[in-house]
Design goal:
Blueprint lengths: L2 E2 L11 H13 L4 E7 L13 H6 L4 H13 L4 E8 L5 H9 L5 E5 L2 E2 L2 E2 L14 H18 L4 E2 L15 H17 L4 E4 L14 H9 L4 E4 L12 H10 L4 E6 L2 E6 L2
The protein binds zinc ion (2 copies).
Length: 270
């Protein structure tokens, strides 16, 4: 089977008719399980988890509106999973855990988008990359990602090497392969599941997340995977899945992970 658990409906209202646009594309592309995973920072209930000038401007909705959309869609007979993409913030483990526990999520995606107040994947902050040491920035990013996995708060790791989003990549292959080995070992030790995301293909870097070296290292350590689009508009649901499935198979994967009420199981991929 195929699933798409990492999607954002935030560009429209939290209504069933808007959600149905995403469900329609999922159906057309043979996605058996579709799930929504809004960004946590959009909700007033998360102000204590992540607060900076950028998120403050965008914190306009409530979790009740969001959950209400999913609940109504289910009442209308749609099969839709309820997820969230929640920024990991070092030091906020207890608050994150308490927040997650309050809602009937099928899965919660752990992502790192912030190095302090530097939202490194935001086009508005892209200029802040200039003058930064790329390897040191990777060290910082992978360090936070490691702490996130050690905290075991999440169901899967979102876009594990999104730090390359604008094409800033260290040219030191040894530096990267050492990080990949360390991360794969850590993912395995803490029971993490890793996302293969086609979103990178639609970003300046033009590559899948994670890099082949990291994905192969994960397979060598038997780290399970999930395939997602990170769609922010209906037409991107299930985008480039042919490529993603081939990519996963090329790394040795034959199964993907299915989530229900934060429990997981494996299913044959494709
Ligand atoms: Zn993300
Ligand atoms: Zn996302």
């Amino acid at each position: 089977m195929l699933t798409d658990y990492h999607t954002h409906t935030e560009r429209g209202p939290y209504t069933v008719p808007w959600l149905e646009n995403f469900l329609r594309v999922a159906h057309e592309r043979g996605i058996a399980e579709y799930g929504v995973s809004e960004h946590g920072y959009r909700f007033r209930e998360t102000a204590h988890l992540l607060d900076n000038p950028w998120t403050r401007e965008r914190r306009t909705q409530s979790m009740d509106e969001y959950w209400g959309m999913v609940e109504q869609a289910r009442k209308a007979g749609h099969h839709v999973k309820f997820g969230l993409e929640l920024d990991y913030i070092p030091g906020k483990e207890k608050e994150l855990e308490d927040f997650i526990r309050q809602y009937p999520f099928d899965y919660v995606i752990g992502s790192v988008h912030w190095l302090g107040d530097f939202g490194f994947d935001l086009s508005e902050m892209k200029h802040l990359w200039s003058g930064r040491d790329v390897a040191a920035t990777y060290d910082e990013y992978f360090g936070i990602l490691s702490r996130m996995v050690e905290a075991r708060l999440y169901d899967f790791v979102g876009h594990a090497d999104v730090i390359k989003v604008f094409g800033h990549e260290p040219d030191d292959e040894v530096f990267l392969s050492e990080w990949y080995a360390r991360l794969a070992e850590l993912f395995a030790r803490h029971g993490a599941v890793v996302e293969i995301s086609t979103a990178g293909l639609r970003k300046p870097v033009g590559k899948m997340y994670p890099a082949p070296g990291l994905l192969r290292a994960c397979h060598a350590k038997s780290v399970p995977v999930v395939i997602n689009s990170d769609a922010h508009r209906p037409e991107d649901v299930g985008a480039d899945y042919d490529q993603a499935v081939a990519y996963a198979r090329g790394a040795g994967y034959r199964e993907l992970t299915v989530f229900t009420e934060r429990r997981r199981r494996s299913e044959a991929m494709g």
